[in-house]
Specification:
homohexamer; alpha+beta; 5 helices; globular; 5-stranded mixed beta sheet; Ribosomal Protein S5, domain 2
């Protein structure tokens, strides 16, 4: 796994923000809190957690066109939904009051594994935000399950953890795992890019992911 | 698993079309062939397979607004990408010539498992289209790997196959599997909706999926 | 006129649904009911009837791009407005309560005359929906005027009824008529595609349309 | 019929332009010429005629929102298609060379009958443009069929010509006719707004329309 | 400065409307009044003034594509914001009650200086609208500061006022000034198009603009 | 003026990138080079410089909605055009070959003066990019005019330089200046927000801006 660094309070405006660096993949995570919930939850006394994901035009080797001009891509929608779903497993929404926690994950530099870095960083930033609101007396600190995410893959027939862009480009199988601190699976996704995978390799990938996630959880 | 029926040639215009019914989930799959490939493949002598997914407004209990008026949802993008990726594992794209096979999957009735029904139906329709083009001498029949997809989930702590809408609504974990005829994993996705899943339940889900997929492959 | 078949309850979710087949033109009509009206009618105690129209990508010989990606065409808007206007002549809106009846007309196979088939099918499906709501005690059965629609045209100098796609492509004049059961004109539209039409040919087209509509009304 | 005035050369930039006033309905018609045709006509040696329609925000009593912010309405698409179809009947497109004539019809003041005023004005402006190009030696003067359009309706049971906004609002039937100088029907559209129309009233509307169109043709 | 003409009541529907002609630049200005304010001002007892700007397709030598089809351009947004900001300096918004005055500025013919002509015309039309509402007893006449706008530029090294299109195309510097009747600066914008401008030329441009604006104010 | 810091190579992919910090306003500037020019310049042997501007959702105190979901605002278009115009004055485009230099300016933290910080940073980053391409032998180093931009305003009747957000919110007049190293005016914009400005205050603002820009140029 590549070296991981967390730079807290990178932005000043949001309730909580941090920059997570995994090698040359750098993702800025910012938590905003709104005192209302989406229409489908109104009046139920429960909260909501959602996420948005973006990549700066200069985050990739070849400039990426802005989604403000070309519209959000299918990939962006897919990642946003994944981040939001994962974070909602972290805490009992009923403990949040009628509040929406929106986590913006913006990629400043992309070198593979941006979606899993985003989940890991977003979970920590969200935890920071809970802490600040609790310290300010706005809400009690909710019980939470720590979680982290890591990418893995089959490259040249071998299971590997935390692929960078060049490893990922040649992988036969791409995988992303979101695991809770007690080792349960929140989200597992494996995708054959070059060739289908024998079932026993899924086990190898999960073994690696468990190791990676427990290292990431030490950063909390 | 719910009873499965295939109605071939439901539409007249496309190169191949069929209606797949899995219980009350009915998906129309139609294959169109274009004698060109997307810009990034031009001049490489290789083909392309892609998919689009839609739901008719009346396919659900509460009418679903058309994507022509509200724009494609994140869910639609996610499903389209999943279908396309899976089908591209079915055949060596180099054997297709500079042709694009586009499979439209339109849900007429939705009762859970529409994305996996779409993949299963699309794979069969694509195979039909290959056969027709080969019979007409347009291209040689490519070698292919049969595949099928099935949904599964954890409901009330138990692993279950092929969830209908009401089972799916209460599931702790949703899962979708795309497997090849030789039992390898093309795509595995598990999502905690209610609670994270112990790793051993992933094995139970995979066991069920293998059984389901082999039944589906008997329909070819 | 081509043979006509009605398949009821093709979809499970909507209040009423049917598939109308006129030759190789197949249109799925589904009625949804909402317990509210558009803003301009709010609080007036009156109901509303509106329609949406779409064509599946595989309904035509050359695949039709989805309106979810290219936006609704002018043709689609024109047809939707025509269906909605025609159906609103079928019943006194004041008898419906503050309810909106939305009829989705989706073309599964297109071989000419899709808009008139849609009107004929939508009127029957709307009648079915009234019957179901009346049977359930939700509203009294409103008085209604049965109506049907049929296309016609001048082909090679001759007036013809119910043109299929190949006849329509070579027609000098295209026409669409929506008539009530007592022979009055709800909507008459004639369009010169190849050459303007002498006034007396309008009479011949109307004669044909009256005959066609009375046959269609026998299906109710 | 309301008094009609034509003000030529209202705009300076276009090949031809005029302002047509029918009572308080004022429509600006401007013809632009492009030395190319739409893709579907390329290389066939034939020309094309098309139209766009718009209403200024201040053209109505209650300000109309710009289509630049809300998108073109179904009504706008319907009218644009009607104008374009009608004008294409005026001249043999093969005589125009590979040129597109685009007529912009912009309503400055709207008091009923804007679409028919637009057709009448556009036909005259198009004729002016042909004359200018012919005078400049750019193309020979094509043979043309003069045409004009007029609205009519059933108000209080009586057939009426050229309805203004207040008459139109209370009409049982709205109708629009585009007729050629030799009395043939280019486009006939009748729409029941309040009640279906007995067939003999269509004859009365056509009698009125013929009279109105022959008066309009005297303005050429 | 080119000759200026004001034609009042060019449109019938709006509260006030006028056509301002500065040489061959003709802009139609129409004021609509709504009895509500944007959300951010609700309940504060204050009014709002805003503007929209458009160009008819035939206003330029080469036809300009409609913003209804291509979307509003950056230039349009920039001009709309400039007009709105300038007009809001004309009157104390607190004196308007909870009303929105929206001024539509539509260019019928464009020959340079359309944005400054729009501001000058819009200010006069807005004043007319205040007068009409005051005469009708709807609101008291607010105190206002008369203002006007004029373009200027550096052409061939010389400061010039009120550039037409051909002068503007070759200018080294473009400038727009909005001045109040007491000579204060509401908006000053200078843009180097060909070469940066020595500071003393800004003074020359301002001298010219003061002269131009005082002539324009005599038209009130 | 607030303290200014430049952090070079903040992003890895672009040809050149830097982070400019003016107090709590932080803007990331990244230069991408494309070996082609916009259509209107094709084949003329000249280059092009353009800019895009964005704000991260967490850059402000109240979260800013993404332009990917709400569309680019008028303010964004206005700023992008200003940055692009200013940079095109920095160098003779003919010396760049048929290349487009696109500078992305993304605001990470916003505390007033983001557009002027963006211009200052973008000019330096563009200079860096020229240097790298020249060092690599891709193109000769073009001659350039150094430039910088600074905001100013009238607050409580006094001219002030480099306003932060809270000063800017209460300013009577907002101003932005882009000046070249030899003191000429590239762009001057003053906007009355609270009250029009006597002409002599424009001189005071320019005096301040000259001082500010010469300090900024020392950073090159």
């Amino acid at each position: 796994m590549r070296p991981v660094t967390i730079v807290r309070d990178f932005q000043i405006g949001p309730t909580a923000s941090l920059l997570i660096k995994m090698g040359n993949t750098h993702v800025l995570c910012a938590v905003s809190v709104e005192e209302k919930v989406p229409p489908f939850l109104k009046g139920q006394g429960t909260g909501w957690i959602t996420a948005e994901y973006g990549m700066l035009p200069g985050s990739t080797n070849t400039r990426m066109q802005r989604e403000a001009s070309r519209g959000r891509s299918g990939r962006t929608y897919e990642i946003q939904r994944l981040i939001g779903r994962s974070l909602r497993m972290m805490v009992d929404l009923d403990q949040l009051g009628e509040r929406t926690f929106r986590i913006d994950c913006d990629v400043l530099n992309a070198d593979g594994g941006t979606r899993t870095a985003a989940i890991t960083g977003a979970a920590m930033a969200l935890h920071d935000a809970f802490g600040k609101l609790a310290a300010a007396g706005t809400m009690p600190m909710p019980k939470f399950t720590r979680l982290a995410a890591i990418s893995a893959g089959i490259v040249g027939g071998e299971a590997m953890l935390d692929l960078d862009y060049s490893e990922d480009s040649g992988a036969e199988v791409d995988a992303n795992f979101v695991l809770s601190e007690d080792g349960r699976i929140i989200e597992a996704q494996t995708t054959a890019e070059g060739a289908p995978m024998p079932r026993k390799q899924l086990d190898e990938l999960l073994d690696l992911a468990e190791k990676g996630v427990s290292e990431l959880l030490e950063l909390w």
